[in-house]
Design brief:
By secondary structure, the protein is an alpha+beta fold. Helix content is 51%, strand content 15%. The protein contains twelve helices and ten strands.
Length: 385
């Protein structure tokens, strides 16, 4: 066991007075019992006791203290000075990240990005599980046990199941993401890709926050996010993120995004508990980073959403052209009318008409200046009768 400059060389001790078996030290009999249970829960979840200071952990992992601090901060953990709060798992994680850099598989900057993206995603997941899941299951029971007393055995039962499920979902998502990369046309498409990007935004949400109770508002937001998530993935899109009263989604092709946008409007319109919705979608080159999307196409989709009338879908000119190119919508109503006339004439001549099977209709709107993007021509998207 290594030691730091303070001379704390007892692997079973703790700089903050907490014993490594998860119990409060004997000399601290007046300690808050909740703190004792918190330490026991930490040991249960981490599978190890507190053993190292950050300096000792970095030295044991064979990395500099500076790099170790960058990794920990990227994962979302606060600086803790030189308190003995780290475990063998922390040392192993440092060794793995540093090993990927040493082997040339990741640059140091990329390793920090891996730590940051993983930390941000799992932090939100952990918060949700505690706030929405465990809290509901740890209501005081008829047995007279307090929530604190119930939490430990409940976590003990749930932990292995939740861990297995997390790994399963992650592997499934990794397989899907890898498949999208493999199907890319070239290396540039792996980062800068042509996608359809859409925003769906609840109308009048600010007014709702003043009128509804906090619990009612939370239920509304949860119902909105759940509905949007289910519809987006069910029809072949990807939910990028949720922002309370707004969701951001993406799809590989315009036809899929158009179906998602219209389904969102139709579903919300038929739900009396939901406010009106507006959707904006744009098509073009998008930069992807850490599961998020950036670029002019994303900004345009956001602007289209802000100017869309209630319960409508607005798309940009590039999106309209893409629907025309793929045959999901007519290039123009004149072209559609000509195709229908030709089909009618073929039928009159005793031939089998080949009517185009357009799914969507597009109506050009007035051109208008959009802040930061110049003049744009939005199109109103609807289903074709």
């Amino acid at each position: 066991m290594t030691t730091d400059d303070s001379g704390a060389d007892d692997a079973g001790g703790s700089a903050d007075g907490a014993a490594t078996d998860g119990t409060a030290p004997a000399e601290n009999a007046s300690a808050d019992p909740d703190d004792t249970i918190a330490i026991r829960l930490e040991a249960l979840i981490l599978g190890a006791d507190r053993r190292y200071t950050p300096f000792q952990a970095a030295r044991s992992a064979g990395v500099s203290m500076d790099l170790a601090a960058r990794f920990w901060r990227a994962m979302g953990f606060a600086d803790i000075g030189q308190v003995k709060a780290l475990t063998e798992a922390d040392v192993l994680a440092l060794r793995r990240l540093a090993g990927l850099v040493e082997a040339g598989l990741l640059s140091e900057a990329m390793a920090v990005q891996v730590a940051r993206s993983t930390g941000q995603t799992t932090a939100r997941l952990a918060d949700w599980q505690i706030d929405s899941f465990l809290e509901g299951l740890t209501e005081p029971q008829d047995s007279g046990m307090t929530r604190t007393e119930i939490t430990y055995p409940l976590v003990e039962l749930l932990l292995p199941e939740l861990e297995e499920f997390l790994v399963y979902v992650w592997r499934r998502q990794l397989a899907a993401a890898t498949g999208r990369v493999v199907r890319a046309q070239d290396d540039d498409e792996m980062v800068d890709r042509r996608l359809a990007v859409g925003f769906a935004d609840l109308v009048g949400f600010t007014r709702l926050t003043r009128r509804l109770e906090e619990e009612e508002l939370g239920e509304l937001v949860e119902a909105f996010e759940t509905t949007c998530s289910d519809l987006v993935v069910a029809h072949g899109g990807r939910l990028i993120k949720t922002l309370g009263d707004e969701v951001l989604f993406a799809a590989d092709d315009a036809g899929t995004a158009a179906e998602i946008g219209l389904r969102l409007i139709e579903t919300m319109t038929n739900d009396e508990t939901m406010p009106e919705l507006r959707v904006g979608i744009a098509f073009g080159t998008v930069t992807t980073r850490m599961g998020d999307v950036f670029g002019t196409t994303v900004n345009l989709a956001s602007r289209l959403t802000s100017i869309a009338p209630k319960d409508t879908v607005l798309v940009d000119e590039a999106f309209a052209k893409e629907l025309g190119r793929t045959g999901d919508a007519p290039v123009s109503e004149a072209a559609a009318a000509a195709a229908e006339k030709a089909a009618a004439q073929a039928e009159a001549d005793g031939m089998v008409p080949a009517l185009p099977t357009y799914r969507f209709a597009l109506q050009p709107m007035w051109q208008r200046p959009v802040r930061g993007l110049g003049v744009v021509e939005p199109w109103l998207l609807s289903r074709r009768d």
